[in-house]
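Hi Q.,

Before the meeting this afternoon, I wanted you to have the nicotinamide-adenine-dinucleotide prediction in hand. No need to reply - just skim if you have a minute. The sequence and ligand are here:
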Amino acid sequence: MSKVRVNLKERSYDVLIGKGMLGRLPRLAKGRRIVIITDYTVGALYGKKLSKKLGACLLQLPPGEITKSIAGTSVIYDKLIELGINRDGLIIALGGGVIGDLAGFTAGTYLRGINIIQVPTTLLAMVDAAIGGKTAINHPKGKNLIGVFHQPKQVVVDIDTLNTLPSRELKGGLAEVIKYGFIKDPGILKMLSGNPQVNSNFWIKLITRCAAIKAEVVSKDERETTGYRMILNFGHTIGHAIEAVGGFKKFSHGEAVGLGMLAAAKISGKREAEAKLVMLLKALKLPTTVKLKVKDLLLALKLDKKARSGKVRFVLPVKIGQVTIKDNVPEAKVVSVLKELGCS
Ligand code: NAD
Ligand code: GLY
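Predicted structure with the ligand bound:
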C-alpha cells in the first residue's frame, strides 16, 4: 500500500492506494453510522458486499451524469433525514467521479457539512476527482455550476476495482494520467510509453505519482485563489467545449481532455509536446481528430465558467512537464487549431 498526504492544516488527510483496500474500510470507518452512496453498477459489483461488512445503509442511484443533479441530491438528503443521520454520521462515496461529486456535495451541505470518505472506483476518480475537495452537481444550463469545497476525511483507492472497469472508462482515466505527465512529471509519460507491464505494482505506482501531484497542487491552492490549481485544467478548456458541443455523448470526458491537450499543445507551438501527445493518444487509441463546428465550439468556450471578464483561459505547455496560463490567445489562433484538428 502507498500513502499520499494532502496537507491542509486541520483539513489534512491521506490518500491510501493499494490492493484489497475495500477490505480495510471497516477498520477505517469504525464506530460510525455509515451511509454508502453508489450507483447501481458499482453497487452490484462492490456496494452490497461492503455495506454488509460495514453494517451500513446502501443507497444506490442510476449511473451517469444525469444523477449529478439537484434531484439526485434530494434523494440522498431524504435518506439521510429518514435515517436520522447526524453530524457524527459518515458518508462513503463508492464509485466514479459522478458519485464522488454528488456525494461530496451532499456531505458538504447536509447539516452544514458531515464527514465523507471517498472510495473512487474509476481511474479518473482515483487520480483526480476524489482528491482535493471540489464537489459539484449540474444545472440544466451547465455542468458543475452548483458546488462547494468539502475535503474528505480520507481517500481509499482499491486498485482491484479497476479489473471491472470498462476499457473506454479506463482509457478516459489514462488521458488524465497523461495530463499529470505534461503539467509536472514527465516520468509518468515514460511509465506509459513502450509496452509497460500492467500489473498491481504498475497501477499503485502510477496512481501514487498522479495523486502526489494533485495533493501538492491542492495543498498550495486549495480554493483556486492564486491560480496555481488552474494547471490541473490542462486540456480542459477546449476539452469541456468538445464535451458540451458533443452533447456529453459523442466524446467521453477523457477523450475530450485528450483532444483539448492536443489543441493546447498546438496553440503553444511546442512541437515536442505535440508529437509526444499524438504518440501517446494514438497508442491508447484515444481520438486525435474531432469533427465539430468551429462556431459551436467558440460559443461553448465563451460560456465556460473559466472565461473571466470575457477572456478564455488556456493552460499551455512550456515544455513537457511544465505549463503556463494564458488568457490572451487570439481567437484566430484557436480557430486555425480547431480546423487542424478536423473541425469545420
Ligand atoms: P462516472 O462516475 O460516470 O463512472 C463511469 C462509469 O463507470 C459509470 O457508468 C459507473 O457506473 C462505472 N463504474 C465506475 N466504477 C466502476 C468499476 N470499478 N467497474 C465497473 N464499472 C464502474 O465517470 P468518471 O469518469 O469517474 O467521472 C466523471 C465525473 O467526474 C464528471 O461528472 C466530472 O465532472 C467529475 N470530475 C470531478 C473532478 C473533481 O475535482 N471534483 C475532477 C474530474 C472529474
Ligand atoms: N479537477 C480539477 C481540480 O480539482 O481542480
